[in-house]
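Chain particulars:
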Amino acid sequence: MAVCNSSVLEVCIAHPSNTSMLSAVGFIMMPITLRISVAVIMIFMIAVGFLGNAIVCLIVYQKPAMRSAINLLLATLAFSDIMLSVLCMPFTAVTIITVDWHFGFYFCRISAMLYWFFVLEGVSILLIISVDRFLIIVQRQDKLNPQRAKIMITASWLISFCMSFPSVVGWTVVEVPARAPQCVLGYTESLAHRAYAVFLVVAVFFIPFTVMLYSYLCILNTVRHNAVRIHNHADSLCLNQVNKLGLMGLQRPHQMNVDVSFKTRAFTTILILFIGFSVCWLPHTVVSLLSVFSHSFYYSSSFYIVSTCVLWLSYLKTVFNPIIYCWRIKKFRQACLEFMPKTFKILPIVPGRARRRVRPSTIYVCNEHQSAV
C-alpha cells in the first residue's frame, strides 16, 4: 500500500492488488483545526454511545421484569451500537486527524466488514420491531414472545455476518484511506463487485426502509381509522368491550383506569427510531452507490469532505438511540437514574402514581372520558 501526503492535496494509490489499482488523484483536505474538532466530537460520540447503550444492556440484563420481547430487541440494537462505537469509530477518528490509515490493508477490509456487519444487525432489529408493531396494531396478532425474540436475534446475527463477510475476501473494492476517513466502497467497473455493492446497500437501507415505511403507514392508517370509529361510537364501543371482558357485574365500570396511550406511545417511539435511521443512513447510502458507479464523483476533489460528513452522520445513530430510550420509555429513564451516582442526582425523584401495565395483547376498554382499541 502506498500513501502520499502533501500540505493541500492528498494522493493515494489505495489498493495493492493488480485487479483494482487506482491512478493517483488529488483531493481537498479539511483544515487541521476542523479535522481535530471533528475527531474530538467523534470521541465524545464514542463515549456517549458506549455508556448510553451499555446502560440499556445492563438494564435489560439485571432486571428480569425488563426482559420482554421488545426490550430484548432494543438491548440487541444497543449492543450492536456498542460494537460499532468500539470497533469502528476510534480508527475513523485517528484517520481523520492524521489523514492516513495506520492499521494495514487487511485490517482495512476487516474494519469495513465489521462496519457493515453491525449496521446490518441494527437495521435487522429495527425491521423486526416494525413488523412486530404492524402485526400487533394492524393485524391484531401478538406473536412475538421473549423465546421467539431470542431465536430471531440469533438468526439476524448469522444473516448479517453472512452478508457482510464477502467484503473481507474481495467480493467488492474496499479502498484504504486517505481518499476517505474510513475504508469505504470504492469505484469499480467490475460487474461482480458492483452487484455485491448494490446488494449490500439495498439490504442495509432500501429493503428495510420500504418495509418499515409500509408498516408505519398501515399503522398510522389503522390508528386514524380507530380514532374516528371510537369518536363516533364511544358509548356503544364501551359497552361492547365491557361485555367481552365480562365486567357487566361491576357497579361502575367507567371508573376503571386504563392507560389508553400505551400502544400509541410505543408506536411513536419506534417511529422516531425509524426517522432517525432514515436521516442518518440515506446520505450514506447515496454516497456509497455514487462511489461505486460514478468515476467523476469518486475522484472529485470534494469526495473526502463528503464521505467524512456522511460517515459522521451514520455514526450519530449510535448516540441517538439511547437518548430516545430515556426520553420516551419511562422504565428506562427510571433505571438510568438508578445507575447514576447519588452525587449526580440534582433533583429528587418524585414518586408517581402506580399504574398497572397494559399489555399489547389485551382488549382495551374505555370510560366516559377516554376510549381506545
Observations:
- The radius of gyration is 25 Å.
